[in-house]
Amino acid sequence: MSFSLSPTHSMSEDEFQLLRDCIYAHCGIHFDLDSKYILEKRLSLRLRDLDLPTFYDYYHYLKYNRNKEQELMDIMDVLTTNETYFFRELFQLKAFSDEIIPELIKRKAARGSRSLRIWSAGCSTGEEPYTIAMLLSTIPELSGWKIEIIGTDISQKVLHQARRAVYGTSSFRSTEESDLRRFFHKHDNGYKVNDSIRELVTISHLNLFDTNRLTMLGKVDLVFCRNVIIYFDKPAKKRVIESFHSVLDDGGFLLLGHSESLMNISTQFTLRHFKNDMIYQKPDCFLAGGRR
Ligand SMILES: C[S@@+](CC[C@H](N)C(=O)[O-])C[C@H]1O[C@@H](n2cnc3c(N)ncnc32)[C@H](O)[C@@H]1O
Fold this sequence. Notes:
Elements: H1 13-27, H2 36-50, H3 55-64, H4 68-79, H5 90-110, E1 115-121, H6 127-137, E2 146-153, H7 156-164, E3 166-167, H8 177-183, E4 184-187, E5 190-193, H9 195-198, E6 201-205, H10 211-215, E7 220-225, H11 234-247, E8 248-256, E9 270-273, E10 278-281
Parallel strand pairs: 1-2, 1-7, 2-6, 7-8
Antiparallel strand pairs: 3-5, 4-5, 8-10, 9-10
Residues 27-29, 80-84, 88, 122-124, 128, 153-155, 158, 207-209, 226-228, 231, 257 line the site of S-adenosylmethionine.
């Protein structure tokens, strides 16, 4: 397949705005005028493949063609940024495994529960949910617990890679040699995650703005949503954070990327200061002497 580096079609400002609004309504990703060239370049290939003369025709296709939903789903593969790697943001992961998990174990055990559900929202090629599984597998107190880690993303292409679970060097920039030996085995030209880790993880397609599908997820104890909401504008961030709040169990935790915060977005969470990091928590009405 030939892959041209420069766009084959030019996009007017009007066309840019129509397409940008259409993409935003679908997935919350906000392209400003400076990124017109990116849209032009990435969508040019679709015009060529669909044999459409202008971006206006392509907009019409996205709005009215009977394949419009499939097309919107497909272009997520070229419009999303999927950068990720194992053991990303180590200080936060340390807070997760050394401080948050022991607290959750105590709280859940006191309520007679021995199960843990964790959602990696915007999991890209899977390094994040597998990292979570690796960390949990080293905690002896969790032996005999039912552990479920759900990795979801809007791009089918990255989910395919996540299910395959085979990785090359760029995924290991923050991985210790001992962890590589412990959790992976050589496969083709890379390393494959061991079955004992993969068994803990389910990979599914989910658009964070698809509220109907979100309700089917059920309650979770912890949400990892790192380096995802940076691509959204404020109203979109608010909508997604509101969804996390309803999906989280009382006292559950929300882990964002290190450059992300809930400032001016939500006051529904408490910012907890742990030794290793600061983490958002949904207030626990039970402990606060509230409704139960
Ligand atoms: C930069 S990656 C972050 C990966 C991982 N969380 C990390 O921090 O290493 C952002 C991911 O969010 C996904 N994403 C963006 N918008 C989304 C949406 N509306 N619903 C679900 N996933 C989305 C992208 O497809 C991409 O894979």
